[in-house]
Amino acid sequence: SNVKDGLKYMGRNPEMLHFAIGAMVVTSGTSCLDHISLVFGAFLGISNRNLFIGTIFNRFVGSAACHLWQVVGAKSGSKSAYLASAMCYLAAGCITLVMTKPVHFFVQSSLLGAAGSGMFIYYRELLTKLTSMEYSAHTFSVVSSVTGVGG
Questions:
Q1: Nearest to 151 by CA among 1, 16, 21, 24
Q2: Which of 34, 29, 36, 4 is nearest to 150 (CA)?
Q3: CB distance 4 to 126 below 8 Å
Q4: pLDDT tens, position by position, 98-128
Q5: I need a labelling partner for 37 at 20 to 30 A (CA). Which of 7, 8, 73, 138 fits?
């Protein structure tokens, strides 16, 4: 099976194994933050109008950030860009801790949009670089299963 062969391949490729474990942890945290941000904003009393605008704004920021992530990746490499996008998630998490006003929600939503596009791009790029063409289907099925459990 793809998963079984992928696990064997990952066992022989420690860098891939470390990436898969790290991806599970990161995906779990980022997925949680993405899913609860709107609910948390509503719980704090941020109006439905502002929640809606912030959610739409998140998508626009994410789309625009894709272009910026290309520049970051080209200048600093995939690993650095992946870590930078993870730092955007960390910053969004920190803002969540002090969020009390609509402006906090908009900043948090912007960071989540930017971070999400960077993670989407560089997670897949790093995974592609870490696996051989021969085992790509196996590796992607294992990592997708693992990150699906995490996120």
A1: 24
A2: 29
A3: no
A4: 988 888 999 999 999 999 888 888 888 888 8
A5: 73
Neighbours of 52 (CB within 10 A): 11
What is the per-residue pLDDT for 151?
44
Those residues with Cβ within 8 angstroms of residue 144's Cβ, 6 or more apart along the chain or in another chain: none
The C-alpha angle 55, 103, 123, rounded to 5 degrees, equals: 50
Between the two ends of the chain, the Cα-to-Cα distance in Å is 23
From 7, 1, 38, select the one nearest 142 (Cα to Cα): 7
State the residue for tokens 């021969």: 134
- Taking only the tens place, the pLDDT of each residue in 43-90 is 889 899 999 998 899 899 999 999 999 999 999 999 899 899 999 999
Long-range contacts of 42-45 (CB under 8 A, 24+ apart): 44/99, 44/100, 44/105
Structure-block tokens of residue 118: 């960077």
Please name the residue that has the structure tokens 């941000």.
Answer: 37
Helix axes 102-130, 14-43, angle to 10 degrees: 160
